Amino acid sequence: MTYISGFLLAVPTANKEAYRKQAEEAWPMFKGYGAVGLVEGWGDDVPDGKVNSINSAVMRKADETSMFSWVVWPDKQTSDEAEKKMMADMQGQPMPEMPFDGKRMIVGGFQTIVGDATVKTGYIDGTVMPVPADKRAAYTAASAKMADLFKEYGAVSVVDAWGDNLPEGKVNDFHTAVLRKPEEAVVFSWINWKDKAARDAGWEKVMADPRMQEFGPHTVGADMGRMIYGSFVPLVDA
Questions:
Q1: Cβ proximity of 37 and 73 under 8 Å
Q2: Which of 68, 2, 108 is nearest to 229 (CA)?
Q3: Closest-CA residue to 189 (of 74, 65, 79, 41)
């Protein structure tokens, strides 16, 4: 299974093109380290939740846009080796100027448990949620059924990835993003649609289907009240 480096961040809306340019220029570097894909999702509809949200997770300011992004690796070993090489290559080098506040960027490593993470994106529904750590097998089985349901109603692909390496940040992290409890893991997921119209039509059908209640994440103990989510347009898909 592939391995995912998942990111949540906030970028000044005025810096959209500068961010896109930097991400496109960074792709050859990631590819050289062994990555097989990179997607930068620009926030299109990222709601504020009653408890938490992607916006609160990245401490988004009024003039910023939240992003949901990832790098795909063939496996965990390639990801780990790439991280070591990057750190070694950057040693002694000045940090490049970034068009966003890197201190508020959330990063983590996730093991793909459902879906093909290399499928090209059209319109993205991204979610991060806490799941009881001892329910991994049950969650994987339920997610596979959910993926089939979404694809039945037009989704191109569905990916779920289980938290494997989630560092604690000085400012924020995936743990605080979902208010994770000690007995929980964090899941990073996305549903890929052809476009926004397909997404809107698909969700209407999914929500009306009784199977949604049969094998949704809530059936394995996931606290949906702490799930954070949003819809994103791919700014970069390499």
A1: no
A2: 68
A3: 41
Integer angstrom CA distances of residue 47 from 24, 27, 162, 191? 27, 29, 23, 17
The pLDDT score that the predictor gives to residue 144 is: 97
pLDDT confidence of residue 197: 99
Distance CA 106, CA 127 (A): 14
**In 3D, which of 109, 126, 105 has the Cα closest to residue 185?**
109
Q: State how far Cα 3 lies from the chain centre.
A: 12
State how far the alpha carbon of 102 is from the alpha carbons of 7, 21, 24, 227, in Å. Answer: 11, 16, 17, 23
List CB contacts of 38: < 8 A, sequence separation 6 or more: 23, 26, 27, 30, 69, 70, 71, 72, 236, 237, 238
CATH of domain 3-237: 3.30.70.100
Q: Exposed, middle or buried: residue 213 (CB in 10 Å: 0-12, 13-18, 19+)?
A: exposed
CA–CA dist 138, 121 (Å, integer): 27
Q: Would you say the pTM of this structure is higher than 0.85?
A: yes
Over the stretch 16-41, which tens digit does the pLDDT of each residue have? 999 999 999 999 999 999 999 999 99
Name the stretches of the chain with pLDDT < 50.
none
Residue spans per domain, the chain = 3-237
Q: What is the DSSP string of 106-149?
A: EEEEEEEEES-TTSPPSEEEEEEEEEEGGGHHHHHHHHHHHHHH
